[in-house]
Every structure is written in structure tokens, then in C-alpha cells.
């Protein structure tokens, strides 16, 4: 059975209510599909009108009046504000795998009159409320997805055409962007969260949502060895120096137990000085391999700039004191020392395998965004390469 490409659009209201993490967690656990792409959009009127024209179809299993409600909702709530021109924030996720369209649609759910329960995403996060006379009081679909393969193809091509003009790292998308304390910071949800299908990436986003910050950029990324070495370059010398503090004592213990050699404190210190840089370099190489799936000692030439085998998600948060808020929510590097309720306490296991990375200053955020090329996204190319015709 051939693979399919499917999508989920997370509506502005769902993003505003910080339900993005919950939605992602359900999609990952209930579909077991591969999350291959993600991009933020600030849709133009042209994009929304073209997308809305293709919502009401005979092939959609939902009743026609529900489809019409979704179409009207899209035109009203995803298009720019007609008074101010302010654009809404929309997140689009791409999933790939066998029967991807059907599996995503089953996880999303189909609206029915008087529906109850929490089985699907729309059961939990969506609403359709009528007045006693049968008129519609309130409608919120929470997410949007295609009902069949043909429409997935059509709509993905529409969004791909607008991806460069309407999508990417959003500018001036938050109310605080003119405040002097407004900051932009970077988060990486690390590869250890993608070893198997789980809700961990979504759960991490859910905890970050407590900061009240806004997501203005997102991408699925596979670090190259060259990127990882540049990204973690500042810690290289630190590791070479710090590893000497403990390596001398460990070397002394090993020599004593294996050869019954008694070492003086001065010799122990000399061993730390001698072996520390080597141990630090080994630890640095372990970090690079963890983030990319490739040992820097085993790749050279053009292979250093090829995407690695490990997947991560890069997320950009914005708001007042964004760097500090994200760092406090993440917790210290060592999960064992992280306070209860922080991400690294909940999901980290070691100093290296610690769930997520966050920039420690606005300057480093800018540096790191440049390294991972946050303004570049595989969203459009992925769709175009999948539908080669």
C-alpha cells in the first residue's frame, strides 16, 4: 500500500487557547504517522478564499450544512481582520504514511448533531452549540483536515503555493511586539522524543504554553553535523575544561583497583589536566551524534552538510521576557536537579538526553535561529516532491 500525505490545520482559536500541544499529542499517538513538516501561516485573504472554495464537496462524509458552517467559519476566522488588516496565526502540520488521510481524519473526528464524548480531537476541543429553536449559537471546529486523498492533494497544493508569501517565521504577529521587553527565543524538542510514537512532543508544547507566550515559527528539522557542531560550539571548550575535574579522580580509582597503584593528589590533578580535554571532546562528539544520528568522526566532506537521521522540532516563542520564561519552564540542564513540574524533570533522563533545548539569551536565540535556518522550511518542497506531476 502506497504512502499518503495528509495535513491538519490548527485554527487561530485553538492556538490562542494553548491547545496546540494537546492536539499534536493526540495526532501522534492516535495515527502513529510520521510528522514530516510543520509551518506557521498568517493567511492572506486570497489564500483563505481559495481554500474555502474547496471545502464543500460531495465526497465529504459530513452533512452539507456542517461543511457550509466550516466554510463560513474559515472565511470569518482565518482571514485577516477586515478592519485592521491584522492576520491570524495558523499552524499547519504534515503527516506521511500508509492511509495517512483516513487515519488523520479519524483522529480529528467528524461533526454530528448532538455529538458527545471525547474520542476525537473535535469531540474534546471543538464545539457546535445550538439554541433551543435550532439556530446556531456557537461553532468552533478546532482543527481542519481533508476528507479524502484527492482533496488532500488539492488543498496541500494551494497552501504550498502560498507558503513563502503567507508562511514561515511570522513578523509582528503578537500584541507585545513593540514593547521594549518583547523577546524572541528558540526551543528545540530533541530527538529523544521521537524514538517511538508518543505524545511527548505535544506534552512538552503543552507545558511551554503555561508561559503565555506565542508561537510564531515552527519547523520539523534534521540537523546536519556541521550545524550541530556550530550550534553546540560554545560548550566545546567548557566540556574540555570541566571534564578534567572528575576524570582525574576516576582515573585514580581505576588505576588503584586494576594495578594497585596509589596516586598522590598532585598526580591525580595531572591526570585530570591530561585526560580532561580528550574526555570533553568525546562528550562533545556524543552530543553531535545524539542530535544528528551521525558521529562527526565518521563523516567528512559533503556528508557533513547533509540532513541527519534524527528528527527534532524547532519552535519560536515570542512575548515579554520570553527567554527567561521558557528557561524557567524548561528547567536546569540536569533533570535530576530540575524542579517538579518543569519539562526536564518530567521528560529528561540525563544531562544530554534532557527533552529540549532553549536559548539562554536573546543574542544566542538569534545566533541559533541562524544556524538552524528558521526562515527556511521544507514545507513547500516536501509537498511538491510528493506530488510530482
Key features of this structure:
44% helix, 4-stranded antiparallel beta sheet, alpha+beta, 389 residues, single chain, Alpha-Beta Plaits, 10 strands
Helix percent band: 40-55%
Which term fits the overall shape? elongated
CATH class of the domain at 3-169 and 377-386: Alpha Beta
**In the CATH hierarchy, what is the architecture of the domain at 3-169 and 377-386 at level 2?**
2-Layer Sandwich
- State the secondary-structure class: alpha+beta
How many DSSP-defined strands? Answer: 10
State Rg.
24 Å
Poorly predicted spans: none
| Helix count, DSSP H or I runs of 4 or more residues | 16
Q: SSE order, as H and E?
A: EHHEHHEHHEEEHHEHEHHHEHHEHH
CATH topology of the domain at 3-169 and 377-386: Alpha-Beta Plaits
CATH superfamily of the domain at 3-169 and 377-386: Nucleoside diphosphate kinase-like domain
Describe, in short, the structure shown:
The protein has 389 residues and is of the alpha+beta class.
Could you explain how this protein is built, in words?
With 389 residues, this protein is of the alpha+beta class. Among the domains are: 3-169 and 377-386, Alpha-Beta Plaits, CATH 3.30.70; 227-304, no CATH class. It is 44% helix and 16% strand. The model has no long low-confidence stretch (mean pLDDT 91).
